[in-house]
Amino acid sequence: MDKREEKTDAFDALSDKMETLECTTNDVIAENMELRKHLLESACTTIFANCTSDMVLTDIEKLKDLAEGFEYSSPQQYESKLNLIKKSYFEEATIATDEVELNEEAGEPEKIDENLSVTPQMARYINTVTKLKA
Hints:
The chain has 134 residues and is mainly α. Helix content is 80%, strand content 0%.
């Protein structure tokens, strides 16, 4: 009976040790996942700052709101999505502003390209400014 009890005790000890190691491993894995998440967030914060360095504060806030819904698994994926949104939403305004500045420098009356896509609010603003200058 002594050997049987020794084997049972040894088995119980190994079982307890295995359970302890499993808990430790799970804690380390959870900590590692948390650190990776923070590293990814930090990298994306840096990317966002670099991407928006040439933008005005209101546009930065708009882009920040749009970027909150991004799903990404790497900084490169975040950067590509951010640049795509930036180009599609904020480059149109830059194009329209550049066109107006060029027309003013040339002394020509302002003409709005019909193919240029602008928001309805911007279209009303452009029409109002055009009427005021006429």
